[in-house]
Amino acid sequence: xxxxxxxxxxxxxxxxxxxxxxxxLYIDKHLIHEVTSPVAFLGLxxxxxxxxxxxxxxxxxxxxxxxxxxxxxxxxxxxKMQVDKLTENTTNHGITLYGLNHPxxxxxxxxxxxxxxxxxxxxIVCGDSHTATHGAFGSVAFGxxxxxxxxxxxTQCIMQPKPKKMRITVTGKLGKGVTAKDLILYIISxxxxxxxxxxxxEYAGEAFTSLSMEGRMTVCNMSIECGxxxxxxxxxxxxxxxxxxxxxxxxxxxxxxxxxxWKTLYSDKDAVFDKEIMFxxxxxxxxxxxxxxxxxxxxxxxxxxxQTDVTYKKAxxxxxxxxxxxxxxxxxxxxxxxxxxNGRIEDLRQFANAVKGKKKAGHVTVWIVPGSKQVEKQxxxxxxxxxxxxxxxALRQPGCSACLAMNDDKVPEGKLAVATSNRNFEGRQGxxxxxxxxxxxxxxxxxxxxxxxDPR
Amino acid sequence: MSxxxxxxxxxxxxxxxxxxxxxxxxxxxxxxxxTERKGFGDNLFRDWRYDKNNQPIALFxxxxxxxxxxILVGGKNFGSGSSREHAAWAIYDYGxxxxxxxxxxxxxxxxxxxxxxxxxxxxxxxxxxxxxxxxKNPDTEVxxxxxxQLVQIASTGRKETFEINSYKKECLxxxxxxxxxxxxxxxxxxxxxxxxx
Lengths: 456, 197
Ligand code: SF4
Hints:
By secondary structure, chain A is α/β, with parallel strands linked by helices. Chain A has 16 helices and 18 strands. In chain A, the strands form five sheets. Chain A has a five-stranded parallel beta sheet, sandwiched between helices. Chain A has a four-stranded parallel beta sheet with strand order 11-10-9-12. The longest helix of chain A is centred in the N-terminal third of the chain and has 17 residues, at 77-93. Helices cover 32% and strands 17% of the residues of chain B. Chain B has helices at residues 23-26, 46-49, 86-94, 106-113, 124-136, 166-174, 178-184, 186-195, and strands at residues 8-16, 71-74, 98-101, 118-121, 141-145, 150-153, 159-161. The two termini of chain B are 33 Å apart.
């Protein structure tokens, strides 16, 4: 029987299988940031051991950093302490750090791919659930907890039961004004916030293969929002083209050798998945979420579904939306474009193109946060910052920002934000804040109109 | 560092009868700024437990004196969202030893097990019966026996077996953690690395 893409990558990394238990899985690349790593380093110190393979770990501060005045000392003392700890720990253990103001700093899941650290066929982990992003390259990438961060630092391995396999096939191409973000929000709304739990998803079909690498990353990024450990897409010419010439991509003969291997990374025709789901791209319109988990989403022209259970009612109450009513024309207070879901250059381009020559609505606060230093630099080189400025919008500095609101970028209580990030949980963007998830194109249309509108 | 051993427990429960309790509710991001693993229990369910003036919200089960015990009972899809292990730390630090639900998010389940917090997955009907019993009598006790993989509602006698992989079960019964194990097979890991060159 043939193997799935996931099997090929996973099986090649199994060091040992424990009877009735997990696999010992070897990790090729480990990304760390300031929030989920300090306790892991503390664990190593308590055991009196050093990092086993420091060259396989890369560090950057992102979750907690300010997005203005990054050259000044961080004002929040607790945030500063975490960022300083990351510097101290990486120095002690000989780990590469792209610290604040370094030209490679940025959100972990944005810098890995843009530096060519992320490659097909790798196992990649990070103490952040959106590590699934790297699956866009045909790697097995997933988020881990701090105990597991410690395991990787100590032994370059973690212990994991092998997930089941699901394939989601979407036939046809996306329509005008419909983006990768809409595609994944649509899928999550159909299979629910827990529909993927226990599975690793492979995305297949023209809707995915016709996407750019940026778009594929947006899709894989949100795999965790349907409960899946990760999602991946078989590498193809688009992948290889993207990787060519990047800082840490293989070069010369090493490239040829890797490329030959990468071309073997696809699901065999006779491979069997534990579950298969099919959708048609023609049915997908721009999406928006109305509730308090990413599964509570719908086409932007639809009406909020009617359901009677307590949890559902509580969510609508929190969001101040009404079952059976449309949400189009709802006034919006904040627009956030950024995060590892939609903070890449293509997202900023889409947003800037859509607001070009227009002005943002007076009452709307707009935060545009590039995913990395390199994205910021590129945006400025392309003059996107000027287009934004003419629309009354400032380009901020890289970090996770309002995606999880650990820094000062918090949406105030009761205010409604349209965000291109990945979670609309209660208070995710600040205590009492309300979030509707959408694409950068929808976010642009909303920023101009000051209310929920169809970007088409 | 090893984890606390777990064998059996019999205690009343604290019910949170809501589905999709995500890790941002269990411990909001703004409380993740510590560089040590201490005191997270104080901020467990912070925004459901306290109002914006930091006053306890009387109706929330953690603040309601009629509920006590070392078992937290949550609705379906408990622990979804972020990979923050702080969620498991906060629940454990608060004093819970077990979380019962009809469905757990994968990462949360792994994090819980790595910290000696036992996730017990039961059927939806068992869960609903348990919620109803606690509603009737908040002192309703539940017994969890890890060796037998058995969970039982004392008042009705309803019992169910629950799943746990035999390796993790052994770790919890003996208080071992995964790092001890991985460090003990370092030779194997080095040999594996040689095959990958
Ligand atoms: S942008 Fe959001 S989801 Fe992405 S790494 Fe940062 S906090 Fe996590």
